[in-house]
Amino acid sequence: MLKLVWLIPVFPLVGFLINFLLGKKLKLSEKAISTVACGTILVSLLLTIGAFYDYAANYAPAHDNKPYVTSIDPDTGEKAGFPHSFTWLPGGQAHNSQGKAAGALSNFDIEWSYQIDQLSLVMMFIVTFVGFWIHVFATGYMHGDKGYYRFFAYLNLFMFMMLLLVMGSNFLIMFIGWEGVGLCSYLLIGYYFDRQEAGDASKKAFIVNRIGDFGFALAIMGVFAAFGTLQFSELAELSANYDVEKLWTFGLMSWIALGLFIGATGKSAQIPLYIWLPDAMAGPTPVSALIHAATMVTAGVFMVTRTNFIFQRSVTMMMIVALVGCLTAFVAATIGITQTDIKKVLAYSTVSQLGYMFLGCGVGAFVAGIFHVFTHAFFKALLFLGSGSVIHGLHHEQEMPRMGGLAKYMPTTYKTMMVGWLAICGIIPFAGFWSKDEILWKTFSTEVFGGGKILWAIGFITAGMTAFYMTRLMWMTFKGEERFRKAHHDSHDSHGDDHHTVEPHESPPSMTLPLVVLAAGSAVVGLIGMSPAITGGVNINWFEHWLDPVIVKVGEASGHATAEHHIEPIEYVLILLSLAVAVGGIYLGRLFYEKRTELADIWAAKLRPLYTLSFNKWYWDWLLDVKGVEAGKAANNALWKVDAVVVDGGVNGSAWLTRIGAAISGWWDKWVIDLAVNATGWIVRAGSVIFRAFQTGAWQNYALLFTFGLFIIVFLYERTVIYSTIKSLWGMIRGSGN
Amino acid sequence: MSSLLAFLLLQQDQPFLKRFEPTLVHFLMLSFLLFVVGVAGVLSRRNIIIIFMSIELILNAVNLNLVAFSRYFQINQEVLRAKGLFIDSLMGPVFTIFIIVVAAAEAAVGLGIVIAMFRNRETVAIDEIDMLKW
After folding, report:
1. How confident is residue A400, by pLDDT bands cut at 50, 70 and 90?
2. A550 with A305: CB under 8 angstroms?
3. Backbone phi, psi, residue B78, to 5°
């Protein structure tokens, strides 16, 4: 099966091509389109599981846990050709054939191949498994939409790009996937392109991501300049030649890592580039679940983990990653508390959880970060799909104040979302607890840099807030007063005639089945990464064991788990504290939104400045969108003024001068030069009047003149002879007359 | 001019009666008349073919002149030699033959031009062909 990995991205691509090129032309039915879309992903999923098994059972033990790069045949160890891999950009050959001096570029030879190792297998599994169930959900959610084929074509294209991203064996293939998922994100956020906010949100996402991609692209160039290759497996070895750059030093590795991290902040919605993700909720809900919760936004975490050999060589950058992640987690959680749009809350929750992942990566616990990616993919996709089911059931109502009491109308959605809620709050033994606790513990005990305990404290408070706002979301949506009838009645006129019924209804099985599957996943997947502290010192943290070979060991500074895990007593305290803060958050949430609903308003009034700050998203959007864009516009206006006055003035002035000069020159030409020329002509013409009379063109005239001339000349020269001749002739006549 | 001078010199020595023979003067008169007729034709006719014929007349007038003088010098060879004049009497006929050849060539070329002209202009009237002034 391992040899078939090249097929994994091919299938979604085929599905994309079929749906995109033929979907409209052949008027494929929804059934055909969804069969193609889900079927291709299912095949990829099965292939992924096969590759997973083959790698774990056969390849890894035989090859010392080394990654399998498709350009090398796993059996013979020789170079594998198409379709496993092929030379994609033979830049070095071209460079050398031009006769240029051999430099770094002569080694520029990019292969199209995939790297299959523990990390990419985990990511491939997340992408295909969660992706498959979200595809299934979307078949129900998008039912009756006129762009059905387009939607599934984009989803399949996204799957293809995402698989390229996680499977690529070098930076450039990863970059294709990186940009490709950005493109699909843009297309899918703007899927309802007839809505203004969707179009704006898609543009915002695209532009903000460009900023990050700029850093990423620079970092790729930097990597090639520094190492002369872009292949991850080679880079991991080459990077060992570089020393670890100490805290507060910023050398080559730090610069490269900075560029990579800027890319990650863009794609994974971290401060300062997180603003696009909440707006991206304008897309259809399955898109939010797939792209903006489970897979694409975690690409940044994946990339940081993939390039951990670079990040680990810069302590400064590690600290920056951790700080940014920690701050993002905190800020996003505070914003999430006050939002009323159910999807916005989940979006900020996603940003916050992504912050946790980066916090984990930053403190050296890359495995914990990826573990959180793994569990988060399950429970956040579940929560998003659940919110999609609610939105579907309420006929596209997203505002939580217009929900409430939905539990009895949508029992399956309610029960499955409860699992997701427990998971994200961090209640043992649901998935979120294990990964979040792992991150918090690694943060607390980090040895990469000092101050881990402060970061832990912020993360700890954030965990409480997470529990609070998720409880708020659940209770506002599913419990309490049924507000949707009234709200819906009020706004009935503006909605049009297609919303006759206000009665919420449970979603069809095609939507509830994925919810059930993901709920089951959210409940149990955490168990593969159980902390030894819980299991009584027995290390059955399979996840950490599995990913261990991917993480490069750097000196002794890495606080990185080895086979014998040393348990400290403080770990139990921290676990209990985590649980306590989660329960506390839930309790507070229930107090505010179930028992004493007036408390929410009272406290909002009491903490008015904080509330406004949170409700207005810390004014960051306002700063960037309004102030930043305004400042940009002002700057551009100023530049335009300079352009209009100075540059255009210069250009117009020179044009004006040229015109004046040309006018003078033209006048001179017309009245002086031309006059002289014409006068010459006129004079010659006047002088030739007489001579022209002779030039009749009738040559007989010429001949006549010629004859006369001849006669005259003969007469002039021979006049004596002529006289004498005439005289003698005359004499002869006289003589004869006599 | 020298031949005319010789003619005049000889004239004074001839006895009167011999003058009724067709003498050189008669040939010259005929030649002169032919020449004048030719020139008049060239200058006055419109039809280019007639002009060609007139040119032939001029040329033949010259031919007659040459042959006549040639014959005259041949007859009076001793007299002229006694007077110190040595003239080759064959020069005249030779030149005549040259002139006939040249006239034939000129007629061929000229008629070719005339035909080409007629094809373009559909006329052989010389006053309508006045393009040479341009």
Report:
1. confident
2. yes
3. -65, -40
| Average pLDDT of span B13-40 | 79
Q: Which whole number is the average pLDDT over A378-398?
A: 89
How far, in Å, CA of B85 to CA of B69, rounded? 14
Show the domains of chain B with their CATH numbers.
24-125 (1.10.287.3510)
CB-CB contact of A470 with A349 (8 Å): yes
Average pLDDT, chain A: 86
Residue with tokens 């003969």: A714
d(CA A691, CA A699) in angstroms, rounded, equals 15
- Alpha-carbon distances of A632 from A125, A212, A621, A635, A636, rounded to whole Å: 43, 19, 15, 5, 6
pLDDT beyond 80 at A596: no
Which tens digits make up the pLDDT trace of A471-520?
999 988 888 888 777 655 544 444 444 444 567 888 888 889 999 999 99
Q: Scan residues 708-727 of A and list those with Cβ closer than 8 Å to B.
A: 718, 721, 724-725
The residues that bridge with A112 in the sheet, in sequence order, are A86
ipTM of the complex: 0.70
**Which pLDDT score, from 0 to 100, does residue A496 have?**
44
Interface of B with A in 32-91 (CB under 8 A): 39, 42-44
- The residue extents of the domains of chain A are 170-491+502-615, 621-691, 696-737
Residues of B in Cβ contact (< 8 Å) with A697: 130-134
- C-alpha to C-alpha distances, A381 to A132, A360, A378, B28, nearest whole angstrom: 12, 21, 5, 134
What is the SS3 assignment for A79?
Answer: strand
